[in-house]
Amino acid sequence: MLNSSFKNISPIDGRYKKKTIFLKNIFSEYGLLKYRMKIELKWFKKLSNILKINEIPKFSKNSLIFLKNIRKKISNNDIKKIKKLEKKFKHDIKSIEYFIKKKIKKNKFFYKIKQFVHFSCTSEDINNLAYALMLKKSKKKIFIPYFKKIISYIKYLAKLYKNNSLITRTHGQIATPSTMGKEMIIFYYRIKRQLKQFKKISILGKFNGSVGNYNAHVFSYPEINWCEVSKDFVTSLGLIWNPCTTQIESHDYIAELLNCITRINNILINFNRDLWGYISLDYFKQNINIKEIGSSIMPHKINPINFENSEGNLGISNALMIHMSNKLPITRWQRDLSDSTVLRNLGLVFGYSIIAYDSLLIGLQKIKINSKKMLLELNNNWQILAEPIQIFLKKNGMNNSYEYMKKITKGKIINKNKMFNFINNLKISKKKKKYLKTLQPKNYIGYAKNIIKKLM
Q1: Read out DSSP for 156-168?
Q2: Residue 4: band (very low, low, confident or very high) from pLDDT cuts 50, 70, 90
Q3: 43 neighbors 130 (Cβ within 8 angstroms)
């Protein structure tokens, strides 16, 4: 019989399973269930600490351990029971509530107060906090470390290649020189800037009942300040309290989070494409692995597959995140379920990004600068010095210096000898001619090295 992984529709659970398996503890059905259970049990515990709720005694140490173990020691059999309840009642949150109540019935301390499980909660009180905790963990433990690792490696390459001059290309055509280090440091700076914004994005949570007004709470216990209780409960989870919502937390922060990841992914798509192009120009050589096959028919090929894989998976992730960031902040009146099915795909969306980050990092470790090719190209294209020469001549009183250099260089390949002959025929002093001859394509790089140094 075939391995079940070969029958998976999504490559996240098949081809790329090993790369994304750690996401399952957070974003799988099992992960979501455990986070929901965590919120239910913490709310039950919170109620016991509200002095004005006389019906619930303060939980003892042993009772707290009992509650903790319901979630901590959840078994496959327990999950099957919850899913069986869900199948029966057609409601995922209610099935968790019933499961917990059934569990605590076995404990004498909890038996008489089991009705307070899920007290005054709407399903979204549980759901929004569960997803918030999932996003909080993935932000801190997955995305920030990945972004830091990518930034760090690009910084290393920028420093390594700070002296390697290259011809740039604007509109795909040969243009003013730079250094490979400078071109790398641009991406370092862009991602680092987005990472600062990413870190500042707050993860919000709400806990205010069926339509956000604490209706059932206030009717049952009017003497309790439920806004303060809600705020204290949400912030105790390490989240920012949202004081004003409909039945659902508005998901604006999720859109902010996804949009920021999308921006970083777009920068990385740009980076992948540039590296792909530099490999095509032979500015980078890729490590040769004699066991690898680049083409089923062309034995010589070494394809930039890691950068192509990264680009493709970033594109899939971004397409889904753009839909999510556009859809999630919009709901019909106080509630509809269209966000529910979308949120369940967070793990899939993040999985494609993780695959892309890994592919990029692997690709970066396979490339080595081809400085000889870059220098040869510079030395074969002295016409790029038309820019500084026309500016220098303009400074020295030639009004039509641009037009003059255009006539000599446009659409032509100029070598060193031709450029020096041109300089010798200029009507300027010998001193100025000597200064112009110090100019070479490889050293016409402006502040390229200084920019790297300042950003390091």
Answers
A1: HHHHHTTT-EEEE
A2: low
A3: no
Give the CATH number of domain 380-455.
1.10.40.30
For residue 128, give every residue at least 6 positions away whose Cβ sits within 8 Å of its Cβ, in sequence order, or none.
Answer: 205, 206, 248, 249
The helix (run of H) or strand (run of E) holding residue 285 is strand 284-286
The fold of 4-119 is Fumarase C; Chain B, domain 1 (1.10.275)
- State the catalytic residue, choosing from 60, 295, 338, 429: 295
Measure the CA–CA gap between 126 and 99, rounded to whole angstroms: 15
pTM reported for the whole predicted model:
0.95
| Token duo for residue 152 | 């760090």
Of the candidates 4, 75, 171, 300, the residue annotated as catalytic is 171
Q: Convert the pLDDT of each residue in 346-368 to its tens digit.
A: 999 999 999 999 999 999 999 99
Cα 338 to Cα 91, 210, 322, 330, 386, distances in angstroms: 15, 17, 16, 9, 60
Strand spans (E) along 87-194: 165-170, 173-179
The hierarchical CATH code for the domain 124-369 is 1.20.200.10
Q: Are the beta carbons of 356 and 309 closer than 8 angstroms?
A: yes
Pairing of strands 240-241, 204-205: parallel
Angle at 387 between CA 271 and CA 413, to 5 degrees: 85
For residue 171, indicate whether it is catalytic: yes
233-265 pLDDT, tens per residue?
999 999 999 999 999 999 999 999 999 999 999
The domain ranges of the chain are 4-119, 124-369, 380-455
